[in-house]
Amino acid sequence: MACCNRNLREHVNEEEERINAQGEDIIPVLLKVISILVVAVGLSIGLSQIN
Length: 51
Hints:
The protein is mainly α. It has one helix and no strands.
């Protein structure tokens, strides 16, 4: 019963935590980039309508 091996479960849990930690770093960076682009496009559209 390899699926119940304590070492295997610990390894899987460590890998899951490592992968989740990497995912948390990527999402905020993407959100920041997207929000900056949205603000920049909004400002450029707003300023172009003033002139």
